[in-house]
Design brief:
It holds the Pfam family Response_reg. With 220 residues, this protein is of the alpha/beta class. 48% of the residues lie in helices and 13% in strands. Helix 1 (12-23) links the parallel strand 1 (3-8) and strand 2. Helix 8 packs across helix 9. The longest helix is centred in the last third of the chain and has 15 residues, at 184-198.
């Protein structure tokens, strides 16, 4: 299956570079380019994109608000957003995740890592958290601003809480299965049930719930 990618960045050269990279992958195609957040929202609706690579700082409408609009649009329920940050300046990355982004990357990520990130987020498999950005999200989740999903971990079984804690640590289904002595299918089923109970869009929101509820402690 070809992943349909929409690129949103206010710098034309950056967009063109990303476009060349994405088009070089056999399993991806660029279906549109946007220079503002508002354009990104409009193109996401019209281009039938599977995933939006979203810059944080853009004119007219920033990437966080654009992400929030995409996440809130029922017609775009299947569209994932991969947010880019410069780390040192874009500390709003946590707000972007709360707004509904499914993953994030720093802009100095290597080309191959960006392609892998697109595949991972498009598949809904995991929150991307390279070292520096992982520390960033831990730091800012110390000050929660309210839950992003429909409930808290108190509605989960003990096993589901164990699974959620491992999801928050960035483990995929196979790694969770190995850690808990489960089959990969059982681990996947637990993750799906947790998402349903918490009414979370994806694993990224599960991570936010785990940190904001205090179930996972930053730095531990």
């Amino acid at each position: 299956m070809t992943i349909r990618v929409l690129l949103a960045d206010d710098q034309t050269l950056v967009r063109e570079a990303f476009a060349m990279l994405v088009e070089s992958a056999r399993d991806m195609e660029v279906v549109g380019q946007a220079g503002t957040g508002r354009e990104a929202v409009e193109l996401a609706r019209g281009a039938r994109a599977d995933l939006v690579v979203m810059d944080v700082r853009m004119p007219d409408l920033d990437g966080i608000e654009a992400t929030r609009l995409i996440a809130a649009d029922e017609e775009l329920a299947g569209v994932k957003v991969l947010v880019l940050t410069t780390y040192d300046t874009d500390e709003n990355i946590v707000d972007a995740l709360r707004a509904g982004a499914s993953g994030f990357l720093v802009k100095d990520t290597r080309p191959a890592e960006l392609l892998d990130a697109i595949r991972t987020v498009a598949a809904g498999e995991a929150l991307l958290s390279p070292g520096p950005t992982a520390r960033l999200i831990e730091r800012f989740l110390r000050s929660p601003s309210g839950p992003v999903a429909g409930g808290g971990p108190e509605c989960l079984s003990e096993r589901e809480r164990e699974v959620l804690a491992l999801v928050a640590r960035g483990l995929n289904n196979t790694e969770i299965a190995e850690a808990l002595g489960l089959s990969p299918l059982t681990a996947k089923t637990h993750v799906s049930r947790i998402m349903g109970k918490l009414r979370a869009r994806d694993r990224a929101q599960l991570v936010i719930v785990a940190y904001e509820s205090g179930m996972v402690t930053p730095g531990r």
